[in-house]
Amino acid sequence: MSWLRGAPPCTVLWLALLGFLPLIALLTMPRVDLALSAYFYNAALPQTWYLAETPPWRWLYLYGEYPALALAGGALLVLLSSLVRLSWAGYRRRCFFLVCAVALGPGLLVNGVLKPTWERARPRHIAQFGGAHPYRPWWQPGTVGSGDSFPSGHAAMGYILVAGAVLVPGRRRWRYGLALGSAFGFGTLLGLTRIMQGGHFASDVVWAGALMCGMVLVLQKALGIASDPPGSAPSAGLPGGAQRASPQHSQSAPGNASLPFDR
Q1: Does 263 reside within a domain?
Q2: Residues 161, 68 contacting (CB under 8 angstroms)
Q3: Does 245 reside within a domain?
Q4: Residues 123, 199: contact at Cβ < 8 Å?
Q5: Closest of 199, 51, 34, 190 to residue 124, by C-alpha
Q6: pLDDT grade, residue 174 (50/70/90)?
Q7: Average pLDDT over the chain, rounded to whole?
Q8: Rounded distance between C-alpha atoms, residue 7 and residue 23, angstroms
Q9: Which residues contact 4 (CB under 8 A, 6 or more apart)?
Q10: Looking at the domain assignment, is residue 131 inside a domain?
Q11: Which long-range contacts (CB under 8 A, 24 or more apart) does 180-184 make?
Q12: Mean pLDDT lowest among 89-98, 111-120, 248-257
């Protein structure tokens, strides 16, 4: 596994994305998807989803999206400030990347397109758990007004933190691994919270993770971020670890094409 230690962020994210595929395949079986939700449901209790309102799960539901919002908000603040403070210009590309990741991933793709289009009923709204709607597997869209379970918005807001993890600089690669692992762990924790509350199926959570990894990979490629390896030594005097390159080198490197916000 020594080759993995020096692998660029895009390679590690590709491996993570591929790791979601067996889980998606497993959750194509309705029995598995329903059984995972049924573990947190008890019809004999007054509060049928008995962990829904207990700490820390209630707190995670209320505040779990804040880290991603803070990441995007901080990046936007630095991006706008760099227009006045020119010494911060080297951060613009990465800040723009972070803002786009949160806005286009959880914001547009999950909450703006898939949820209102797929209309999958939530666990607490299906007949197996005392609701009125039939269960539908993740690949089968629901009827109008049946719900917005697919995919999980909270889990997406946790998994999108991998966008921040791939930008962690420094010579010690364990920092990159810790940041990436923390992002995946937090996304999974938020997804588990929503499963416990009857808000999402496990398949909603797994798909959220796969979609966010895919979104980050697309943005890395589009903005030329994928060429920055974890653990690469930052150049002295340049913000964000940017390396000084000759004009000839800049023109010949397609992944580092100059963008308007770099100037």
Answers
A1: no
A2: yes
A3: no
A4: yes
A5: 199
A6: confident
A7: 85
A8: 24
A9: 11, 12, 15
A10: yes
A11: 180/12, 183/158, 183/159, 184/16, 184/159, 184/209
A12: 248-257
Spatial neighbors of 163 by CB under 8 A, at least 6 apart, are 71, 97, 98, 101, 102, 105, 216, 219
- pLDDT tier for residue 144 given thresholds of 50, 70 and 90: confident
Q: How far is CA 93 from each of CA 43, 178, 207, rounded to the nearest angstrom?
A: 52, 23, 28
Q: What mean pLDDT comes out for the span 58-76?
A: 97
Can you give the chain as a three-state secondary structure string? CHHHHCCCHHHHHHHHHHHHHHHHHHCCCHHHHHHHHHCCCCCCCCCCCCCCCCCCHHHHHHHCCHHHHHHHHHHHHHHHHCCCCHHHHHHHHHHHHHHHHHHHHHHHHHHHHHHHHHCCCCHHHEHHHCCCECCCCCCCCCCCCCCCCCCCHHHHHHHCCHHHHCCCCCCCHHHHHHHHHHHHHHHHHHHHHHHHCCCCCHHHHHHHHHHHHHHHHHHHHHHCCCCCCCCCCCCCCCHHHCCCCCHHHHHHCHHHCCCHHHC
Maximum C-alpha span of the chain? 72
Number of domains in the chain: 1
Residue pair 217/87 in contact by the 8 Å Cβ criterion:
no
pTM above 0.70, yes or no: yes
For residue 220, give every residue at least 6 positions away whose Cβ sits within 8 Å of its Cβ, in sequence order, or none.
9, 10, 13, 97, 166, 226
Domain range enclosing 96: 7-41+49-231
Flag whether 237 is in a domain: no
Query: Is the pLDDT assigned to residue 245 strictly greater than 50?
Result: no
